[in-house]
Design brief:
Layout: E1 3-5, H1 10-20, H2 28-42, E2 45-48, E3 59-66, H3 68-71, H4 78-92, E4 98-101, H5 107-119, E5 123-127, H6 140-143, E6 151-154, E7 160-163, H7 168-181, E8 185-193, H8 195-201, E9 203-204, H9 206-222, H10 227-235, E10 238-253, E11 256-264, E12 269-275, E13 277-283, E14 286-290, E15 294-299, E16 316-322, H11 331-337, E17 355-356, E18 362-363
Parallel strand pairs: 2-5, 3-4, 4-5
Antiparallel strand pairs: 1-2, 3-8, 5-9, 6-7, 6-8, 10-11, 10-16, 11-12, 12-13, 13-14, 15-16, 17-18
Helix pairs in contact: 1-2, 1-5, 1-9, 2-5, 4-5, 9-10
Length: 367
């Protein structure tokens, strides 16, 4: 069932997207400003459910590629957001009919809203991950044989290009080099899909969930309830830890924000390792949760999500975890987004503490 996104709904959507962004996806405030501007200038956006999309639709994803830390100082414009869609439509020789989110995290949930508004196109209530991941090929469409290229990219200087590659990993490798040369953040459009492919490969109802998460946190605060607990219950997850941020090590390298953060509680500590998004949560040598399940940091009292670039010494936070789309737990998917891909010699640990076997099954973690 379709619905309409208005400027008044953007704060809830952006807040929920920042939660699902697992620390990455870019500053939600920047994305919210861009989407609000586009909606006010061009009108509201129709959000179409996957079952409403015609089989022969031409669906393109729109996203920001690069280090979230850079985007804080290098603000995108609407022209920069729409340029790759225009370039790719010309390259494909077919009119684009729908816009989709490559990921549901941070600005990459709100930038597609801005693109859809400026282009006058409907937006799918779906995304390619159900969360955020740092690399371009790390989307469920990759598992279904959908190619990232032709991929169009643009920057704030007016540079635009279209890239054709042999597979999605090569799209990531070549586009990342261009991204670094263009200032470590660019706007991209790709993963051209038919409506039938989108129904098979995307995560349904993503934007609906973002709005629901955002409303849940705000409502809990208004009712003097615990907003973090409300978010955990909505996501079907668990709280891992609560404490104060005592150390953050962060650097922007090869187009990513990489680092570690240490959070101390009364009698224990947790270390979070991230590459744009949180990948590992470890407490005194014990793994609490890993990618591909979601690891999120929320403000201790307000429940507001805190991105990796916004983590600061002295913040009182709570770390929560929630299940990812079950398709991320196949052997093929774990090889693409599990801890091993990022250089950690350990199996995937689910949000509930169980350990994933190579076949994708889960076993109870040792005490």
């Amino acid at each position: 069932m379709s619905w309409t996104i208005t400027a008044a709904q953007i704060p809830d959507v952006a807040r929920g997207a920042a939660v699902l962004g697992t620390g990455g996806g870019g500053d939600p405030y920047i994305g919210a400003l861009l989407a609000t501007q586009a909606l006010r200038e061009h009108g509201d956006v129709t959000v179409a459910s996957l079952d409403e999309v015609p089989d022969d639709a031409v669906v393109l994803t729109v996203a920001m590629m690069g280090a979230p830390t850079v985007m804080v100082e290098k603000l995108p414009s609407l022209d920069e957001v729409t340029a790759p869609v225009h370039a790719l439509g010309t390259y494909l020789g077919r009119p684009v009919t729908h816009i989709a989110c490559a990921e549901v995290g941070g600005v990459n949930s709100t930038i597609p809203i801005a693109a859809a508004a400026a282009l006058g196109l409907p937006l799918l209530d779906a995304d390619g991950m159900g969360r955020a991941f740092p690399e371009l090929q790390m989307v469920l469409p990759t598992l279904y044989g959908v190619t990232a290229s032709p991929l169009a990219f643009s920057d704030e200087k007016g540079n635009t290009g279209v890239l054709q590659t042999v597979d999605n990993s090569w799209t990531e490798r070549i586009a990342r080099v261009a991204c670094v040369e263009m200032g470590c953040s660019v706007m991209i459009s790709g993963f051209s899909m038919s409506g039938a492919q989108a129904r098979e490969a995307l995560v349904p109802d993503s934007l609906t969930l973002c709005a629901e998460i955002g409303r849940t946190i705000v409502t809990a605060r208004a009712e003097k309830a615990d907003p973090v607990d409300a978010a955990v219950r909505l996501l079907g997850g668990r709280e891992l830890f609560a404490g104060k941020v005592v150390d953050v090590q962060r650097a922007t390298t090869t187009g990513f924000a990489r680092g570690r953060a240490r959070i101390e509680g009364a009698d224990a500590s947790v270390t979070l390792s991230f590459q744009n998004e949180h990948l590992i949560a470890e407490s005194d040598g014990r793994i609490l949760a890993t990618t591909p399940d979601l690891i999120m940091v929320l403000d201790h009292d307000s429940g507001e999500p805190i991105t990796t670039e916004a983590l600061r010494y002295g913040q009182r936070v709570r770390v929560i975890s929630a299940p990812s789309d079950e398709r991320w737990h196949s052997s093929e998917a774990l090889a693409m987004v599990g801890p091993g891909y990022f250089g950690y010699d350990l199996p995937s640990h689910r949000f509930d503490g169980s350990v994933e076997t190579p076949g994708g099954a889960s076993v109870e973690a040792a005490a």
